[in-house]
Amino acid sequence: MVERELPKLEVAGSTPVVRFSVSARSLIAVFAVLAVVGLLVFGLASKGGSRLEVGEAAPTEPLPQLEGRGSESLTDYKGEWVLVNFWASWCLPCRAEAPALEAFQQQQGKSRFTVVGIDTQDLSDDAKAFVERYGLSYPQLRDGNGDIADEYGTTGVPENFLIDPAGKVRLVAPGPVDDEYLQKEVAPLLPGGAS
């Protein structure tokens, strides 16, 4: 066993004095790290649940229509396939996927399928301008405070959930979708298969 000699402490009177020097920059860095860790823990704890899984029932709470003409719920589409698209006008990937979703709605949007957009945590006027800019013809609902997005377990926008005619989740697509994804993953599940 190797013995090490400990540094000698200065003694002022009968009480040993140990001097620590911490810079303000180090102290700020420690508090910043603690704040980030605290926010992460709070975010995970307050999230509540996890993302809806394939086979689970989709939430059916009504939401106001973006245009302000009443409200709708997934129960209004019972017996139909619904691609629920969570989006926000400030989201760049949402802007990229909007034309593909509209083209898919035009191609597949018959009596047994529709895309339903849910604008979440966004300003109504910005959302309406987004719908107009991209010429979105499918129904648009408003989830102003993000409660329904939380029920779906979204972690951001865009996220898409394909709901079958019985109201069960059949496909989950976190992140943006494009034409290729819609044709290869969504279309084959719809009545009549791939188009």
Task: Kindly describe this structure.
It is a single chain. This protein has five helices and nine strands, in the order ββαβββαβαβαββα. It is an alpha/beta fold and 195 residues long. The chain folds into two domains: 38 residues; 127 residues, Glutaredoxin (3-Layer(aba) Sandwich). The termini are far apart.
Sequence-ordered SSE layout with sheet pairings:
Layout (H helix, E strand, L loop, with lengths): L9 E3 L2 E3 L6 H24 L15 E2 L6 E2 L8 E7 L4 H17 L4 E8 L3 H11 L5 E4 L3 H6 L6 E5 L5 E6 L4 H8 L9
Parallel strand pairs: 5-6, 6-7
Antiparallel strand pairs: 1-2, 3-4, 5-8, 8-9
Summarize the model shown.
The protein is of the alpha/beta class and 195 residues long. It contains 5 helices and 9 strands.
**Uncertain stretches of 5 or more adjacent residues:** none
Name the CATH class of the largest domain. Answer: Alpha Beta
SS class:
alpha/beta
Sequence of secondary-structure elements: EEHEEEHEHEHEEH
User: What portion of residues belong to β-strands?
Assistant: 15-25%
The name of the CATH architecture of the largest domain is 3-Layer(aba) Sandwich
The biggest beta sheet reads: 5 strands, mixed
CATH H-tier superfamily of the largest domain: Glutaredoxin
Number of domains: 2
The number of helical runs is 5
Termini separation: 78 Å
Shape: elongated
Radius of gyration computed on alpha carbons: 26 Å
Number of strands: 9
The amount of helix comes to 25-40%
Major β-sheet strand ordering = 7-6-5-8-9
The name of the CATH topology of the largest domain is Glutaredoxin
